[in-house]
Specification:
The chain contains 20 helices and 11 strands. It is α/β, with parallel strands linked by helices. The strands form 3 sheets. Strands 3-2-1-4-5-6 form a 6-stranded parallel beta sheet, with helices on both faces.
């Protein structure tokens, strides 16, 4: 068998939809060599293009979206009016040479367009199709719309975030979407392996809401075993004490946690606070928890007179868990991320120099990489349908004149 230069060489993926939950899966596949064709239309572009900042120079434009670029590198972008009568036949022809379809439209939309799995499978019985949506394809609330903030709330995260006795706090927007992306990528690869072994296709129904429940396991188990629903408690942890974020000199912050009594002793000794070291009540987690507010104040008194970098060096030497509270600039400048090739640079026609993110795992024999900048709207329509797909020039021009590629 011929050895592939890239893990997913020869695999073709067609994406319908937008924002993060579907396209991020396609990005992962593209980074490892799959041909990923991102389908939009001029009248209904990917929502990230015009609805979600940031934009280059804070000026909204169809090809100026940072969000769209971040989730769509390494792909080919085509413009296709899927509602055009002649587009449907073209898509069916396209399916014959497609391995995977990824879509994240609202349940029922693909079927109404004639693009549901039963429709597409008629033209390629081995087709793998992943449909990812907020709540899944079935159930009484399947068609309810929502974004990351609503999914985090549904999945239980928002209930647990905030100060004790205070209101719930929203989690960073698309967190649940990104959890579902990781599951979706794994599921698609499993279906692709099955397709290669058996020739059979598969339909994958991925509910982002349900994917988030995996990360609520401790709270769910606390309720099912003891009937206790955990409450908001700021930065406090059930095991680690102290556990929190502490201000340093200037604008710096650090996150510190002590997971056992010995680690607390090392922290207290590093701080040079004799009263903390000698206080027998603090040698146990229960004693520290009873006085956690006072401990947090003492720790911040120590950290606030030092640069965050100096605090981190001192606590690393003492084998105490500590990390900086990174800003976005810190992430782009992080030598650890740089050493592992996470940020990879490509120039974009409108955004200019961009640093794209490689996915968070690598393969030893067929490593992945960011392969190209994110596509401008419709950038590869002609190349995909003429050079790769094989439409004759006159056929392409005829369809184009009829508005199929708009």
């Amino acid at each position: 068998m011929k050895r592939r230069a890239h893990a997913l060489e020869g695999v073709t993926v067609v994406e319908f939809g937008g924002y993060a939950a579907g396209p991020a899966i396609g990005k992962y596949l593209a980074n490892f060599g799959a041909r990923v064709i991102h389908v939009e239309s001029m009248s209904r572009p990917d929502g990230f293009r015009l609805q979600y900042p940031p934009y280059k120079d804070d000026r909204v434009g169809i090809d100026r979206s940072g969000c769209f670029a971040f989730f769509n590198d390494s792909k080919q972008g085509v413009s296709l009016d899927v509602k055009h009568p002649r587009a449907l036949a073209l898509i069916y022809r396209l399916m014959a040479r497609t391995d995977i379809v990824v879509e994240n439209m609202r349940p029922g939309v693909m079927a109404r367009l004639g693009l549901g799995y039963p429709d597409l499978k008629q033209h390629n019985p081995a087709l793998v199709m992943l449909s990812t949506s907020n709540l899944g394809q079935t159930g009484p609330r399947a068609t309810h719309p929502g974004f990351g903030s609503q999914l985090s709330s549904l999945s239980g995260f928002t209930e647990l975030i905030g100060a004790a006795g205070g209101p719930p706090s929203c989690l960073y927007g698309p967190y649940i979407d990104m959890i579902a992306v990781a599951y979706g990528g794994a599921a698609v690869l499993a279906a692709l392996d099955r397709q290669r072994r058996t020739g059979e296709g598969a339909f994958i129904d991925l509910a982002q809401y349900e994917a988030g429940l995996q990360f609520m396991a401790p709270a769910l188990l606390a309720y099912v075993t003891n009937g206790v629903s955990p409450a908001r408690d700021g930065n406090r942890d059930l095991v680690a004490v102290p556990h929190g974020c502490y201000r340093c000199r200037g604008d710096g912050w650090v996150a510190i946690s002590c997971w056992d009594d010995d680690e607390w002793s090392r922290l207290a000794e590093t701080m040079g606070e004799g009263s903390l070291v000698s206080d027998a009540a603090l040698s146990r987690a229960s004693g520290r928890r009873a006085r956690e507010a006072d401990l947090n104040a003492a720790i911040e008194t120590w950290t606030s007179g030092r640069d965050a970098a100096d605090v981190i060096v001192a606590l690393h030497r003492a084998n105490v868990h500590v990390a900086p509270v990174n800003t976005m600039r810190d992430l782009y400048d992080d030598p650890q991320l740089a050493a592992r090739g996470v940020w990879q640079s490509f120039d974009h026609a409108e955004l200019g120099p961009m640093r794209y993110r490689m996915v968070s795992y690598q393969l030893s024999d067929t490593p992945g990489r960011v392969r190209s900048a994110a596509p401008r709207l419709g950038e590869h329509t002609e190349a995909v349908f003429k050079d790769w797909f094989g439409l004759r020039a006159e056929e392409f021009e005829e369809l184009s004149a009829q508005g199929v590629f708009s």
